[in-house]
Each structure stands twice: as structure tokens, then as C-alpha cells.
Amino acid sequence: MDLREIQNLIKFVSKAGVNEVKLETKDFKISIKTAPDYNGAPMITTAPQYIQMPQGANEAAASNVNATQKEAATTEDNSNYLTITSPMIGTFYRKPAPDKPVFVNIGDMVSVGSPVCIIEAMKLFNEIESEVSGKIVKVLVDDAMPVEFGQPLFLVEPA
Q: Residues 83, 154: contact at Cβ < 8 Å?
């Protein structure tokens, strides 16, 4: 399935008023959920994906992430915590909808696969799932703020 077919599927789901569509082939799996609280824009649930960048770009991105983590480490010792990072560029939201409660608060326990936030990218709302288990000890990004690929979002005390 190419990008045009995916875009057409998203448009169809938006216009049809369907709540959820799941499509699975041997090559990929896609799940589209409409989010009526966000003006009917579709929500795509994805697992974080890792992109192989050119060698120079990868080192530059790593140094940016390391600089951000070093800034956080100067005020506190975060070395014994796991970090949940952003799998994409977009806008960070702590709630699934404006009138709903946040996904996780400080002190909440998360497990692998637990939804922790939404990142909006190109009018698509991507539910981000935790890749670690433990207790949320710090939220590193304010609600409705832009985030970068690889940017730390949460600190988690391992369980």
C-alpha cells in the first residue's frame, strides 16, 4: 500500500463516519480511529518506529538528544530512570481529548504497551505507547508543545 492509498483510506474513514478501521497485510498493519473530539480528524495508533538516518545526521541528532539530557541532568540525577522518547516530530498532548483526563500522571504505573500521550503530526493523532514498565516520575514536556524525534517525554522509575 503506497502513501496515496493510505491517504485515500484516511479520507474515506473521515467521510464515512466510521469509528474504527483495521487493515492488515503480510507487509504492514494499520489501525485508523476517528477522534470526534478533534473535529473528526482520524487517529492512527502506531508503535514507535525507528528510522535509519544517514551517519552524519544520526550523530547530530544524538548530540542534540544528549545535550537535552545533559541539561536535565545538571539540575537532577536522572541516571537511574528510563526515558520514554518521542518517536516522531509533532505536537505533544497529555489527553486523548480536551474534555478527557490525562493518560498518565506522576506516580502512575505504566507497562509496555500502555498509552502515555498523543502526538499530532500532519492532522493525525498518534497514540504513543510505553516501551518500558515502571512508575512515571517526571513529565518533561508541557501539554500542546512541539516535540522533536527522540526528544525525552517522560522519566520512568523501572519496576
A: yes
Exposure string (b/e) for 54-91, b if CB count within 10 Å is 16 or more?
eeeeeeeeeeebeeebeebeeeeebeebbbbbbbbebe
- The boundaries of the domain holding residue 106 are 55-111+129-158
Residue 49 has pLDDT above 90, yes or no: no
Q: What is the pLDDT of residues 108-118, one digit of tens each?
A: 999 999 999 99
Q: Does residue 59 share a domain with residue 27? A: no
Q: Answer whether 0.85 is exceeded by the pTM.
A: no
- Residue 21: partners with Cβ closer than 8 Å, 6 or more residues away: 9, 13, 31, 32
CA dist., res. 34 & res. 10, Å (int):
9
**How does residue 73 score in pLDDT terms, banded at 50, 70 and 90?**
very low
Give how many domains the chain has, as a whole number: 2
